[in-house]
Structures are given as C-alpha cells and as structure tokens.
Design brief:
about 220 residues; alpha/beta; Rossmann fold; about 35% helix; globular
Amino acid sequence: MTTQGPLRIVVLISGSGTNLQAMIDQIHRGDTPARIVAVISNKAEAYGLKRAEQAGIPAEVLSHRGYASREDYDRALQQLIDGYQPDLLVLAGFMRILTDAFTRHYQGRMINIHPSLLPRHKGLNTHQRVLEAGDPEHGCSVHYVTAELDGGPVILQASVPVEASDTPESLAQKVHEQEHRIYPRVIDWIARGRVRLEDDTVLFDNQPLTEQQRRYRAQN
C-alpha cells in the first residue's frame, strides 16, 4: 500500500472503544504516520464516539435499524466510509457480520482484531469456550478481513496463559491488555508500508510473513 502523507484510517465501532483509544494514544504521541479521519458506529450510545470527539475526530452514527436488509445497510455504510477516502478500514469491536460485497470492496484494506488465537475459536464467547476446551493458552489475533467470518490471513497474535483460577472475565481482561498492544503495532506496520496483503499472503518487508513474526513479543 502506498499513500501520500499519513495513512488515512476510518474506525468502525459498536461499543466502548478501548482499542480505538489505544490507537488514538499512539498516533497522538507521533509514533505512527497515520491519521484517524473518522469513527463510525452503528450504535449512538457507543462510548467510543465520545473518545473520538474528545480527540477531535469526526464521529458518525449510522444505525442499522430501519434498513430492509443487511445489504442495504452495508451499501449505505460503504458510501459513508468512502466519503472520508480512507487508506485503511479498522474494525474495533464493530458487532456486525459484513456482506461479501462489502468485504470485497475493502479487500486488503480492512483489518479486525479477534479475541482468540485464530484459527481456534472463531465467532463469539471465545473466553468461555477456551475454558471449556481446556486450552493452555488464549490470546488475540489481528487479521485481514475476508468474506469468511474471522477467517482472513493473520498478521499478528499475542498469547496469554490460561490459569486454573481464570474465569471468562479474567481472561477477557488479560486479552484486552494484549489487544491494546498489538492492534496499534499492526497499524504502524501498515502505515510504514511494512505490511500488506498480496493475493492471500501477508507480506512483511516484501517477504511472506513467518510464524515467528506473527507472534508478538514485548521486545520487538
């Protein structure tokens, strides 16, 4: 991906926006050559909208209610997004299943973060499912979005150990802390042209991403 000036980002949210805040903080420190040009939510009560307003970022609401179909909503959403001319579309707790036409439109330009070590535990309730499965570790994954739910190529993952005393709530807290570390990092990589998607392969510095590069380490 090549852009003129800072990477233009639109962020989609449905809730509190803690990952959005991590991105805002990193960009405002001057650590990443990027600019969040808009935050859009399908829910007017989403606290992430206030985070955007406090940071001087345009905040928009496009409720999915009142649209006859998922396709109709996604077409309206796409029109709103494209008005901001983004280089990258970032899903940060946007609780909508997107249509194939929408994902194709942003192919290679849309990323998401999922609370599991993909390909394990796609979908919802990942913390409870990890405990039920007896997994020794849990974590989160940043991936490119494709038509397959939580199935796009993974860019970066972070893991946390699962302790005998863990609950879904304690696991959620540990995973959130890792999300706030790795999501801004991936955005920085993309903004600097280090990461891009070519066909179905994630390239890092123009070479296929290795498994070692895909796992987050604090010293990197």
